[in-house]
Amino acid sequence: MKSRVCVGMVGFGTVGTGVAKILTQNGALIRRRVGVPVELVRVADLDITTDRGVRLPQGVLTSDVRAVLEDPSIDIVLELIGGYDAAKRVILDAMAKGKQVVTANKALLAVHGEELFEAAARHRVDLGFEASVGGGIPVIRALTEGLAANTILSIYGIINGTANYILSRMSREGHAFQEVLTEAQRAGYAEADPTLDVAGIDSAHKLSIMVSLAYGTPVNFKEIYTEGITKITPLDITYAGEFGFTIKLLAIAKFLDGEIEARVHPTMIPSSSPVAQVEGVYNAIQLVGDAVNDIVFYGQGAGSMPTGSAVVSDVIAIARNLLKGASGRVPPASFQSDQRRPLRIRPMEEIATFYYMRFMVQDRPGVLSQISGVLGRHGISISSVLQKGRQEGQTVPVVIMTHTATERDIQASLREIDRMAFISEPTTLIRVEGHGE
């Protein structure tokens, strides 16, 4: 039996610092859980001089990635540099040398996951990526092991803390998107270039990973409809509240008739629901299984220590496997490789849900009847209408909530309505979930 498990880490940034702190500070606890010491023996980074607030033994730090990949004593390699090309090379090279791998790289997994899963199976090594979705929330292990007996009927996730922080502030304070974004950047909650977060791309990366694990199917990331929060206004947040809803950037997946819905967009959900009450930088993921019904995971979705916790959880699981000679016990993609099946991801135009539409119209007689006439011709049933006050000749909002409708019909009707002379700006459309007929 091995007397210790040796870990090499590539990347010593925010997450790497958290990993190093946990492995050193909780070393005795981890040893008790694993049975032998789990030691960080080599850390490679371009910057080996900056003080990260964690002391490593002499000789552990190096600027040479090969010192990690070619060290025969290292059992597990952690890829924590992010990005695509360099990170992918580190992972594939480590696997080729028979080393187990842990990564937090959701973008890489979303785009190149199939290649990495196949390489792990070919080299008979484990690939851990708990930290790729939800930071410290153990949702990956839930999908691959804890809920493995279930058909996952749906996934609803707030899985980007930056977007949730911005929407929470907008809802609480009534400020506009750009104002809150600027404050979030100043406070360090948003990146200098926040596009991945506010455009929904980061959430789509994470959703593609969860869909792959939940349904045992390869996922083409480009097939996931993705829409961000940049067009959400305080006015829409106010109207949502009047209908009893809260606006969140949701990652949504559903299993319907052997096909999958997978989409990311701003969504109105009932304000009484657990997910609607998640504020700030926190994440929440609601999974619905055919046996367990609803389960909600809540916690910090990013940050040095929460994400480091997820990385080290993979290290511990893999260390246990190594000591028992059981690498590959859990397939990296959750299903046995020969049992994964391509499933159709429904195009967005085929999605059926409820809709909120805000029309900015010139206040004059007959406007509402013309709008409802177009909706009726496209088979769209109106659930409720909200129009406040009269300002004849002025531009006023008219808000309509629909019963279940298809995206194709909604978009066709809006193309027709937005061409009408009394419409002053493109209509705001927000999809609604959890709204009974």
Can you describe this structure?
- There is one protein chain.
- This protein is 36% helix and 24% strand.
- The chain has 14 helices and 17 strands.
- Strands 7, 8, 9, 10, 11, 12, 13, 14, 15, 16 and 17 form an eleven-stranded mixed beta sheet that branches. Strands 3-2-1-4-5-6 form a six-stranded parallel beta sheet, sandwiched between helices.
- Helix 4 (85-96) links the parallel strand 4 (76-79) and strand 5 (100-103).
- Helix 4 runs parallel beside helix 5 (106-123) and helix 5 (106-123) runs parallel beside helix 10.
- The longest helix is centred in the last third of the chain and has 21 residues, at 304-324.
- 45% of the residues are buried.
In a few lines, what is going on in this structure?
36% of the residues lie in helices and 24% in strands. It has helices at residues 14-25, 27-34, 66-69, 85-96, 106-123, 139-146, 161-173, 177-187, 195-198, 201-215, 234-242, 304-324, 367-377, 407-417; strands spanning 5-10, 38-44, 61-62, 76-79, 100-103, 127-128, 152-158, 225-226, 245-256, 259-270, 282-289, 293-300, 352-362, 382-386, 395-402, 405-406, 428-432. Helix 13 runs antiparallel to helix 14 (407-417).
